[in-house]
Amino acid sequence: MRQFELTTPASVEAATAEPATYLAGGTTLVDLMKLDVLTPQRVQDINELPLRGLDAADGLRIGALERMSDVAAHPGVYPMISRALLLSASQQLRNMASIGGNLLQRTRCTYFRDVAMPCNKREPGSGCPALDGANRMHAVLGTSDSCLATHASDVAVVFTALDAEVRLLSSEGARTVPLAEFYRLPGDTPDVENDLRPGELITEVVVPRLDWAANSTYVKVRDRQSYEFALCSAAVALDVRDGRIADARVAVGGVATVPWRLHAVEEALRGAPATEESFEHAAAAAGEGARTRGANGFKPALLKRTVIRALLELTEGNR
Length: 319
Prior knowledge:
This is Xanthine dehydrogenase family protein subunit M. Helix content is 24%, strand content 20%. The chain has helices at residues 12-15, 29-34, 68-73, 79-86, 91-96, 99-103, 155-161, 179-182, 263-269, 276-283, 299-315, and strands at 5-7, 21-23, 42-45, 54-55, 60-63, 165-170, 173-178, 201-207, 216-221, 232-241, 244-253, 260-261. It is globular, with a radius of gyration of 19 Å. The mean pLDDT is 96.
């Protein structure tokens, strides 16, 4: 790790007065600094700023500095949020990691994390070895010829399914951005991962009220049962009435460069009977647009089965 200056701002205004690297839980930032992937000269510890709190009175408002473990345990959060957080990391990491930091965590692509290797995310224009290299964990949706790296956050997938927004604050003022528009596809600029501007902080996450999201789940398929990133995951909420699906929300992770909403699957589910046959039909649209490379060729089929598994889990007592 290289030498850097650490400061503790006394207010949000002080923290956003000029661009800096912000430290919350540090579970991603410190790792990448140790690897020399990130080498900030100035780091601000923002843990004392008033960016906490969870209000579930009408929808959800979650402060950016709320710890993952506290949000997962809160009785007001939807099951899919709690489950995604509990499946995200070890208990020790969940006690440290913040919600805002989790949304901003960097990819686990081994080429990105190895400074001896070229990587377009780390050094624009240097190349992407994953195109023809070790790419079993990599994305099949939203990829480009510049990058195949998957987005690492579990809870970002859930928030995307729930139409969540992020509140952002800088010295220029406040703004609100839908999470689905916050993340950027790699295209020719994979180093630009989101819409966060220099000197800008995530202050809170806002999830609109959706009462039927009480019937929701998050399914995560991975190589081992604990402390592992997703090969594929599915966040699903269903509104089932009289044996038919009135509405649905479906988003997936582990297979795309950003949290990926499956609008075509949702549309196929609406009005259909809550049966395995209907789920099979709807999930057939899950892999639309997928591009496989070498070792990740299994992911489109795994994606469909993961979506079906989540749908079956939510309707097992209703069929």
